[in-house]
Amino acid sequence: MIPRVLSIAGTDPTGGAGIQADLKSIAATGGYGMAVVTALVAQNTRGVRGVHVPPAGFLADQLAAVSDDVEIDAVKIGMLADATVAGVVSDWLRRCRPPVVVLDPVMVATSGDRLLDPDAERALRELIGHADLITPNIPELAVLAGASPASDWAGAVAQALAVSRRYRVLVLAKGGHLAGGPVRDALVDAAGGQAVVEFRGERLETHNTHGTGCSLSSAVATLRVRLGDWAPAVAAARDWLAESIAAGAELGVGGGNGPVHHLAGLWSRGGLRTRPRPARLAERWWQQVAELRRDIEALPFVRGLAEGDLDRAAFEWYLAQDSCYLRDYSRALAAASTLATEPSAQRFWADCAQGALVEEQRLHRALLGDRPRPPAAPSTTRYVDHLLATAARGDYRVLIAALLPCFWLYQNLGSRLAARSDAAHPYRAWLDAYGDAEFAAQNERAIDLVTTAAVEADEPTRDRMWRAFRASCEHEAAFFAAPLAARPAG
Ligand SMILES: Nc1ncnc2c1ncn2[C@@H]1O[C@H](COP(=O)(O)OP(=O)(O)O)[C@@H](O)[C@H]1O
Ligand SMILES: Cc1ncc(COP(=O)(O)O)c(N)n1
C-alpha cells in the first residue's frame, strides 16, 4: 500500500521548504503526496518577503476537494499563517480526521521571519488537540511550554515532557538549534510513563538546513503509515534526512540557507534511467540482430531447406552436428536450471535440458543407428564452448541470454518455413519439430525469462547478457553456414 499523504502548508517558490519540500519528502520516503495551500509565501533561501493568505473559504474548498475524493492515510500540517486558517483546518479535522496527523507547529522560519501571527497561537493550541504528533524545534517548544528557549538538551526534553503532558500529544522535540555536539531529537510521550526515545546523529557542517523541519515532519507522517509505529518512523526519517542534508550543497540553490537534496539517496541508489519493459527489450534485441537473421536466411543451406532442394548428405551432416551440439547444449541448460533461483524457472530449464537429450538420442538413432557419433565440426565446438564457458562463469542471467538464440532463431525460422511448405516437403519432419506449438510456447517462456531478468539487472549485467545473446546468434549463423561450407555438397 502506498500511503496517501496530504500536506497542508505554505509555499516556498525556491522549492526547499513548505509544500514543495513536503511533496518531495513524501515521495522520497515512499508515499503519494497531495497538497493544500494555506498561504503563498514570497521567500527564498535568504528570507521571507511577503505572505499572501487566500480567502478562508477557498482553503475549506481545497480541503473538501481532496477529502471528498481521496482516502487520506496521513496528514502533515505546516505553516498556518493566522488564526482563521488554523480554525478552518481544525473544522476540517473535526469532520474527517485521517488516521495519522502530524503537526509541525511552524512559527518562525530558519531565517528568523514569523510565519504565524502571534495572536494565532491560541488557535494553534486548539489544533494540537487533533494531532497525534507535534514536531517543535527549540523556539517553538518554548512557546508551547510557555517558557524561554531551552539552552541545553536536558532542558529541551523537560519542556517536551511538559508540552506532551499539557496537550496530551506525542512530541518530537528537535535539537537542531542547540549549538555543538551531535544533533539530538527525542520522541516524548508523557502519557506512556514519561517515555522518551532519543535519537542521535552526527551534526553536519552545512548551510543547507532550509526546510529541514518541513521535510522531517512529512517524512515521519509517511513512514508512520508504512512502518506502523512512531519510533521506527522517526528513526527512518532521520536517516533519510541526514543523507539529504549531506547532499544539499550539490544542488547549488540560493545564496542563503540552501535546501536539502530530498532525492539524493534515491538518485544515487536507483539511478535515473527508466527501466525498459521486457517486451520492449525483446523487440530491441530482435531488431539488433536483424542483419544476422537476414544473413542466416540468405545462406544456401537455409534456402535449400526452404525450397526442399537441399542436398541430402548436407542435411544429414547438419543433423549429425546438431546431435553433437545438443548434448552440450543440454549441459548448459542443466546449468541454467542449477543456477535458477525461482522454482518454475529451475524446472523450465531442467525440462529443456531433458528435451534436448531426448531429441539428441532420436537424431542419433535415426541417423547413425549403432555407429559412433561423427566428430564435432569447428563451428559446433565454438558454439558449445561459448555456452559452456558462459555456464562456468556462473551468472544465471548471462547464461540464459546465451541459451536464448537456439530457441528464438530456430522457432522463428522453423515456423515460417513450415508455414510455407507442403506435406510433400522432403524435410517436413524437421520443419514440423521447430514449427510446432509446444516449441513456440517454450520459446515464449525463454524470451520472457531472459528479458525479465535483463530489465531487472543493472546496466553492466544487461550489457553482458546482450553480448552473450549476440554471440550465440553469430554461432547460430556459423552453424547454419557450416554444412555447405565445411564440406562439398553431394
Ligand atoms: N546540521 C545538522 N546536521 C544534521 N541534522 C540536522 C542538522 N540541523 C538540523 N538537523 C536535523 O533536522 C531536523 C530539523 O531540525 P531543526 O533544525 O531543529 O528544526 P526546524 O527545521 O524545524 O527548525 C532534525 O531532525 C534535526 O536533528
Ligand atoms: C511555507 C514555509 N513553511 C515552513 C517554513 C519553515 O522552514 P524550516 O523547516 O526551515 O523551519 C518555511 N520557511 N516556509
Automatic annotation (TrEMBL):
GO cellular component, one term: cytosol
Residue ranges occupied by any Thiaminase-2/PQQC domain in the UniProt entry: 288-482
Chain ranges of the Pyridoxamine kinase/Phosphomethylpyrimidine kinase domain: 12-261
GO terms, biological process: thiamine biosynthetic process; thiamine diphosphate biosynthetic process
A GO molecular-function annotation: phosphomethylpyrimidine kinase activity
Keywords: ATP-binding, Kinase, Nucleotide-binding, Thiamine biosynthesis, Transferase
Superkingdom of origin: Bacteria
Catalysed conversion reaction: 4-amino-2-methyl-5-(phosphooxymethyl)pyrimidine + ATP = 4-amino-2-methyl-5-(diphosphooxymethyl)pyrimidine + ADP; 4-amino-5-hydroxymethyl-2-methylpyrimidine + ATP = 4-amino-2-methyl-5-(phosphooxymethyl)pyrimidine + ADP + H(+)
Pathway terms, separated by semicolons: Cofactor biosynthesis; thiamine diphosphate biosynthesis; 4-amino-2-methyl-5-diphosphomethylpyrimidine from 5-amino-1-(5-phospho-D-ribosyl)imidazole: step 3/3
Pfam families found in the cross-reference section: Phos_pyr_kin, TENA_THI-4
CDD domains on file: HMPP_kinase, TenA_C-like
Annotated Gene3D superfamilies: 3.40.1190.20, Heme oxygenase-like
Biological role: Catalyzes the phosphorylation of hydroxymethylpyrimidine phosphate (HMP-P) to HMP-PP, and of HMP to HMP-P.
NCBIfam families: HMP-P_kinase, PRK14713.1
Protein name per the record: Hydroxymethylpyrimidine kinase
Organism encoding this protein: Actinocatenispora comari
